[in-house]
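#lab-general

N.A. 3:47 PM
ok so I finally got the sequence cleaned up, no stray characters, all 124 residues accounted for. can someone with queue access submit it? mine expired

B.Y. 3:52 PM
send it over

N.A. 3:53 PM
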Amino acid sequence: EVQLVESGGGLVQPGGSLTLACTASGIIFEDYTINWFRQAPGKEREGVACISNSDGAAFYEDSVKGRFTISSNAAKNTVYLQMNSLKPEDTAVYYCAADEVVVCPLWVKAPLSWGQGTLVTVSS
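B.Y. 4:20 PM
back already:
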């Protein structure tokens, strides 16, 4: 059974930084693609960034390009999302999701395995 656990959320001021972690278990890590999604209050869940652990290829949505960096540590079965220059509109619950495919990004409506989410609040 695939299990994903997110951590690292919290309150940060605009312009600040935060790093989220998604730790996976129950999978062969290198065979999976991990995608970060987020859902703001009253809005639909949307993709943020994705990494294919088989080849390291990364994908970013336009809204976070140049500000967020996704990385993977196979020794720790963990994918990180480094978020810089945070804006109030980045406020959301951030989820990681996984699928045994090699192509980024993952589709939010696909039968993915999901974590429980971690809240990021960007506010002064």
